[in-house]
Amino acid sequence: MIYTLLRPLLFALDAERAHTLTLAALDLAGHLGLLNALPRAAGRPVRVMGIDFPNAVGLAAGLDKDGAHLDALGALGFGFLEIGTVTPRPQPGNPKPRLFRIPEAQAIINRMGFNNLGVDNLVRNVERAGFKGILGINIGKNRDTPNARAVDDYLTCLTKVYAHASYVTVNISSPNTQGLRDLQKDAALDALLAALKRRQAELAQTHGRYVPIALKIAPDLDSAQIAAIAALLMTHRIDAVIATNTTLARDAVAGLPHADEPGGLSGAPLRAPSTHVVRTLAGHLQNAVPIIGVGGILCGDDAREKIAAGAALVQLYTGLIYRGPALIRECVRALE
After folding, report:
1. Cα–Cα distances in Å, from 303 out to 50, 129, 269, 276?
2. pLDDT tens, position by position, for the chain (336 residues)?
3. Which domains does the chain have, with CATH numbers?
4. What global pTM score does this model have?
5. CA distance 200 to 328
6. What is the C-alpha to C-alpha distance for residues 103 and 291, in angstroms, rounded to an integer?
7. Which residues does the annotation mark as catalytic?
């Protein structure tokens, strides 16, 4: 209710400025104890990747890139949070403006470009936070790291976040880092996954704890590409796959203001394409690798659709911009 009243004010501001102010307001509300008064749904626990999630509705990566708002976000009723994408070294991301709303389509275009303060800063934030829930940490490569050395960036991040994560997501599907999606191709992906699994085994031995690895993929894949990725996920025993990242397609928003801005499109237009990828993956994986469904969830029925297509968990981001925290509760109840 409160968010419904505040949204017109936030939408009157530049989208990135509104994002920053909203997170600051959440932090303040958390410090004052106001978030404890929010109504929540109990949810149905679910076990995925060997982890017991209190409910199946999580926060997608991208909202809190540096893990600076964990306590406030953790009080909203999510079953788990995913922070990042984080890179080995700090980077400013792409030039502003780089975040655009398309309210007519309940959509957003972003070309943020992995703007973050680096993995060491993220680890410090996680260590300082009081949040004790399930935490995914999403890792990527620096913009100026060539793909031939991308594996080094992913291994650096995996090593540094391992002790602090419930699971780690490998992001090779953002459209906003040039050439990143090339890592989804057969030989490159095969080599990357093999290296990650070797390091995961070493870290599990060192820390005495197995931390699952998930792979986040794009929606802009054809059937053959999805089948090839599914085969590699099973070959390398990857623990989960997140479907999907944002799309480069513009058919659903053609002619609307900002529709021609470069970047990844999220929100309602992504619902059907991402669900198609979830369903196609599920057909290939046959429960061998759990799927986390994300993309275009703006109501409880959308969350149910992802689960019906084969997802074990779902994640929200753009829907929160349009619906606010009430969407979390609605989705949790829909999946009870």
Report:
1. 22, 29, 15, 14
2. 678 888 999 999 999 999 999 999 999 999 999 998 888 888 999 999 999 999 999 999 999 999 999 999 999 999 999 999 999 999 999 999 999 999 999 999 999 999 999 999 999 999 999 999 999 999 999 999 999 999 999 999 999 999 999 999 999 999 999 999 999 999 999 999 999 999 999 999 999 999 999 999 999 999 999 999 999 999 999 999 999 999 999 999 999 999 999 999 999 999 999 999 999 999 999 999 999 999 999 999 999 999 999 999 999 999 999 999 999 999 999 999
3. 49-334 (3.20.20.70)
4. 0.98
5. 32
6. 29
7. 174
Q: Cis peptide leading into 244, omega within 30 of 0?
A: yes
Indicate the residue type of 326: A
Instruction: Mark out the alpha helices in the chain (DSSP H runs).
Output: 2-11, 15-31, 70-74, 119-128, 150-161, 186-207, 223-235, 271-285, 300-309, 318-323, 326-334
Q: Which of 236, 276, 264, 269 is nearest to 254 (CA)?
A: 269
Helices 300-309 and 326-334, axial angle in degrees (round to 10): 40
Starting at the edge strand found earlier in the chain, the sheet holding 264-267 runs 99-102, 107-110, 264-267
- Reading phi first (left if > 0) and then psi (alpha if -120 to 50, else beta), residue 225 is in alpha
Rounded-to-integer distance, Cα 275 and Cα 281, Å: 10
Residue 258 is classified by DSSP as: T
CB 103 within 8 A of CB 11: yes
Query: Which residues lie below 8 Å from residue 17, measured CB to CB, with a gap of 6+?
Result: none
